[in-house]
Write a structure and sequence with these properties.
Layout (H helix, E strand, L loop, with lengths): L4 E6 L2 H9 L8 E6 L7 E6 L1 H4 L9 H7 L4 E4 L2 H16 L11 E5 L2 E5 L1 H4 L3 H19 L3 E6 L2 H7 L8 E3 L5 H5 L12 H9 L5 H6 L2 H8 L1 H11 L16 E11 L2 H22 L1 E12 L4 E12 L2 H18 L4 E9 L2 E2 L10
Helix pairs in contact: 4-6, 11-12, 13-14
Length: 365
């Protein structure tokens, strides 16, 4: 059966979330920065929307330089925990489309805003069906999260990853095996996923400009320059060969939920009611995959849109709602006692996930 892999990449993720949260930002250049705090624009650009990119602003650029390129742009600080909570929901959507949705073995999150999905069995190797599934994913994310993504479909992770960048934003590109060479070979070697600037520079010095040049180059020569492992990989990648499996990355996954309170408040009873619903949702996701957790993180966003987070790490894995609420309520109580500004949104997230073993409750110990 022909293998089929999807790569889903959220479009300008952090900036898109900020636009969604504040409709007044629509149509403006949005730059999300990792600020150092030394001065107003001391730090680096984390991401920006496409309007800002038209000014030449790019990720990794200093915020001060970005300001010079577009003085009218809106500069916002990174709200990583908030973005992570949105990412958690999106990743749950993606996981539901994989061949092994219960175990997560056919799902691989590679960053906060992108993931691979193995859908070989689900599609029966049919790339037309894969296109339909990719479209369903895009529509569900847009419907539930009001965000767009770009999807690449290929016969392996390498091709799917490269395909997802062809029609950004909000596109879908299918590269079936019969279209592989026409898609891959005209591209510059620097476009091959896994090749950095140093390697690309060395290849160009060897007269290798396009991926086709690389595919046709003598593998012995490549090995002599880059070593056996890297040389063979370069030759295979240029031919679109990638046997690496789609599999979950242990230790980095988290599950969380965040929601807006009915009104801005510091009333612990109102806040606890929402916290209870969020915890129930998180536990249901854990139950569906037979997972336990060791870390609990609570996030609050106040009426001035300032965000605060606190975490606790337990000395053993647990998976009951009672255990989650006990820790989350303790953290929430600290937030309420310390704050003089009403809360607007709250979230709860669990991490250090693993398959369940032993007792499930803190009270069992």
């Amino acid at each position: 059966m022909q293998r089929v892999v999807l790569h889903v990449d959220m479009d300008y993720f952090f900036a898109a979330i900020e636009e969604r949260e504040n409709p007044k930002l629509q149509g403006k250049a949005i730059v999300v920065c990792m600020l150092s705090g030394r001065s107003e624009f001391s730090g680096a650009v984390s991401t920006c929307n496409y309007i800002a990119r038209e000014s030449g602003i790019r990720a990794g650029m200093s915020c001060s330089k970005a300001k010079k390129l577009n003085s009218e742009a809106v500069f916002l600080p990174v709200r990583k925990d908030f973005y992570t909570s949105v990412s958690d929901r999106i990743m749950e959507i993606l996981r539901s489309y994989t061949d092994a949705r219960e175990t997560g073995e056919a799902f691989e999150q590679i960053s906060i805003d992108e993931a691979f999905l193995e859908i070989t069995e689900k599609t029966g190797g049919d790339f037309n069906l894969a296109f339909e599934i990719g479209t369903q994913i895009k529509n569900e994310i847009k419907d539930k999260e009001k965000l767009t993504c770009s999807v690449g479909v290929g016969s392996n992770k390498l091709i799917a990853k490269m395909a997802s960048s062809v029609q950004k934003p909000d596109g879908i590109t299918v590269i079936s095996p019969d279209k592989l060479e026409n898609f891959l070979w005209p591209l510059k070697v620097s476009k091959l996923w896994g090749i950095g600037n140093v390697t690309a520079g060395k290849l160009q010095e060897m007269g290798i400009v396009t991926i086709k040049d690389l595919a046709e180059h003598d593998v012995i020569d490549l090995i002599s320059i880059f070593g056996k492992t890297r040389g063979i990989w370069l030759k295979q990648a240029a031919a679109g060969i990638d046997d690496s499996p789609v599999k979950k990355r242990d230790g980095s996954e988290q599950i969380g939920r965040i929601a807006t309170l009915p009104e801005d408040t510091l009333d612990i009873n109102l806040i606890s009611q929402l916290l209870d619903r969020l915890a129930e949702d998180v536990i249901s996701k854990l139950d569906s995959r037979d997972l336990s957790f060791r870390t609990v993180t609570v996030t609050v966003i106040n009426s001035k849109f300032k965000m605060y987070t606190k975490s606790r790490t337990l000395n053993h894995p647990v998976y009951s709602k009672e255990s989650l609420l006990e820790v989350a309520r303790e953290i929430l109580g600290e937030f309420v006692s310390e704050s003089h500004t009403e809360f607007r949104r709250i979230g709860v997230r669990v991490g250090e996930l693993q398959k369940r073993v032993g007792q499930k409750s803190l009270f069992d110990y």
